[in-house]
User: Which sequence fits this backbone?
């Protein structure tokens, strides 16, 4: 699986989670849901953004390596 495919899958899964959470909050919107979001969902968003950023950097490095070390 390519890096861009993996990155797209992570982003898609996070988007699905975000949509599901928005739908859930329509029914469950109290202090417990706020704590749940702070404890579990907010850290996921931070980690997804960090992971996607790292994957983009790795893509750039891999592209450069291919260009530099490819057949001449």
Assistant:
């Amino acid at each position: 699986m390519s890096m861009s495919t993996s990155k797209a899958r992570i982003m898609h899964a996070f988007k699905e989670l975000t949509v599901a959470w928005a739908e859930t909050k329509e029914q469950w919107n109290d202090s417990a849901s706020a704590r749940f979001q702070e404890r579990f969902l907010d850290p996921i968003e931070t980690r997804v953004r960090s992971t996607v950023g790292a994957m983009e950097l790795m893509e750039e490095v891999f592209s450069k390596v291919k260009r530099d070390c490819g057949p001449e």
